[in-house]
Structures
1.
Amino acid sequence: MTEHDEVDHLRAAHEAVLRRMAAAADRVGRDSASVTLVAITKTVAAERMRLAGEAGMRTFGENRVQEALAKQPALTSTDVSWHLVGPLQSNKVRKAIDAFDVIETVDSVGLARRIDGLLGGVETAPDESPTPFPILLQVNIDADPAKAGLSPDDVETALREIAMLRHLRVDGLMTVGRLVEAPEGARLTFRALRELSVALRAKGLALGPELSMGMTDDFEVAIEEGATIVRVGRALFGERPHHHGDGAIDHVH
Ligand SMILES: *Cc1c(COP(=O)(O)O)cnc(C)c1O
């Protein structure tokens, strides 16, 4: 395939996903402009990501800090933003702050403190109050032992503690649904995340309205249940190789 064909191909895939997002939003009377598509580019080569940028994709999600850093030089456009959607080890926090605009996977107060502490060391002009760094709290709604995330019962306490960290801003909640046979199987997980968010916000806790939920197999159900961020990989870029990076096995469903 020539570069030009590949851009056309990626543009068509992007537009198809956007159309499906708009239809899902429509079904429940939501404005599709209120939902952000994060193109998940783990295992997608930097060069192909550059073409994805030409095809109109602007927000990218990676699950590894190192992989994002390696690919970022290929996308120099200033209106591109990057979300971390994979687990963050404490020794990678400094690099993650540099590489990402949003960290979606904060799953402990300890990790939040570590991010805040490193941000505290970032220079700001003396007359400027620092803009807080946006994070989402990852919640393990289904108590799936294979998944990261705070237990729903622990989110309130975590929010109260994180509210004291002045360099962070919790924009919302994120979840990775468990593997289900059909998209409908994810609906109750997504609904539970939204209800948790509504309940916590009603208590006046410092929590923004973002809900990051839904992937290739179930993003339409997620939008029907209130997702403001959907994370879509395969519907844009095709199937991934089964093995990824340092030997971790990718979830192929
Ligand atoms: C890989 C991944 C996605 C995208 O999954 P697809 O099924 O390819 O859409 C979304 N979120 C997270 C956290 C991921 O790791």
2.
Amino acid sequence: MSEQEAKTYPPSINELARSIRHTGVPWALLVDAARLAVQAGDPDIATELAHGFALSLIRPVVNGTGVLLHTNLGRARLGRFAIHTGPANLEISLETGKRSPRGSSIGMLLKRLIGCEDAIVVNNGAAAVLLAVAAIARGKKTFVSRGECVEIGGNFRIPDVVAAAGTELVDVGTTNRTKVSDFRDAVANGGDTSGCILRVHTSNFRIDGFTQSAPIDELATLGVPVLFDLGSGLLDSKTPWLRGAPPVWLSSEPGAKQALRDGASLVTFSCDKLLGGPQAGVIAGDADLVQLCAREPIFRALRPSLQVLSALQDTLLAYIERDCSRLPFWASAMAPLAQLENRAYAIVSALKPSSAAEVVSSRSVVGAGASPGAQLQSCAVSVPLLCGDQLRRRALPVIALHRGGHTLCDLRSVLPEEDHHVRDAFQEALGA
Ligand SMILES: *Cc1c(COP(=O)(O)O)cnc(C)c1O
């Protein structure tokens, strides 16, 4: 519309809003878009503005990145659990009718799974570390190996967390080698001000070569509590919920059960990363120390909701029943390559032969900083054009990868029942 026309016929906001209803945005937001477009002097941008609103709302996407726990895509996909919407017996004992602690079923299930005496749940892994260090070492020293003074991402940096917990960080050893004697000397020097030893799973990078770290069973003899922040890793390094021995890509991942057995006083981990469950964090271990954490005033500020706890409970029940088919993370991670290839060929053969779509081999990763360097053989559907933007702006967005002039969709992070969306998305992009 030219400036002249706009002056002659000022567009009706109402009419303009009605004309962009196909975007599926609520009426009040359509009116906002129409008003903004008219103010900008270009009614034609109203559709784009409304689409922008629509795309900014959280919606399901198809994860074609091959990253199984993609932090930007919400990490673990939850199984088809009965998530309790409420009311439910969150803080009441059905036996006595009296008040009971929130999350007590989680503690009970974790006792069975990792042999802890007690456990509590907070909103994420970062909160678990913060709370545990604060409860045990506030006003005292926290000893951390120089090789484990790490940044996990999203601004989670061990020195900052230790400082925020009100304790003084003492670096021990060197970047590549830290010995038990380094810790022994540091703890002795600290005397009464020695608070705890914090071991951190260097979950998102790897140092190779001339390295040494202090084993937990020896640290446990030094007279201060040993906290082990696993972050990711495994509930039990023997993976009894999988058939056969643990797969190679998991072979160097620490187990919470083994860390406690070796003498760690507390372990902390992220439930989305370590379990493939909902976003939450766990502090588990000695009953006295867990209760010390539970009595911290900030615990109240970190507590998860009924919905999160019920999803976490079902995740743990799946581990107890050794039924990981209920856990999408394990179903994806363990899917045989031949199965992925069959699915990829089925998608490619449904696309036009002239499209030059092909099946290529690729490498999936666990993601979210878990199992660094571990790659899972996978395969992808590839088309020789860059159409990732278009795939992402669909009503059901497909998040794909650009690589060397091609757009790839890795099928290990896609569920079989989503394959037709991948096919349709590529079809649209190729037809355009
Ligand atoms: C991921 C991670 C955290 C933080 O967990 P979130 O659930 O992301 O908050 C802490 N420590 C380690 C070692 C981690 O890998």
